[in-house]
Amino acid sequence: xxxxxNGPAVLVYYHGAFPIDYYLFVLRIYRxxxxxxxxxxxxxxxxxxxxxxxxxxxHTGHPTREKCIxxxxxxxxxxxxxxxxxxxxxxxxxxxxxxxxxxxxxxVAIDAKVTQRAIEALRxxxxxxxxxxxxxxxxxxxxxxx
Length: 146
Known about the structure:
- This protein has helices spanning 20-33, 51-57, 65-73, 84-87, 104-112, 117-126, 133-143; strands spanning 9-12, 37-40, 60-61, 77-80.
- The mean pLDDT is 73.
- The chain has a 4-stranded parallel sheet.
- By secondary structure, the chain is α/β, with parallel strands linked by helices.
- The protein has 7 helices and 4 strands.
């Protein structure tokens, strides 16, 4: 929570087969702060019967780039999983993100002038140069207060 900015931000997360960690994160942020996280999802999900109303209630949708920028300019948080459903099953050590002509979430963050402070603070706090994510995680759990 201490790394979330008070204003708008694009929260980038990994989309696994079922991103339950992201859903729980969204619920926890709302419960503790009252902030809503607008989640961007693939338009294909809306073709499943009964999902449209449910997803709109939970501020989840497939907005245009302009609508994403407006949501951020209103001060909200936005969650995005680059690659999303299309790339959820390709994760291994050799996988390269399939960008194609996509640059949407990065361009949205630039156009809306949202902060990158939260991600940078997290990186600086938990990763020493030259850096090892495994070392950072081990160190974090060893120094964590019980």
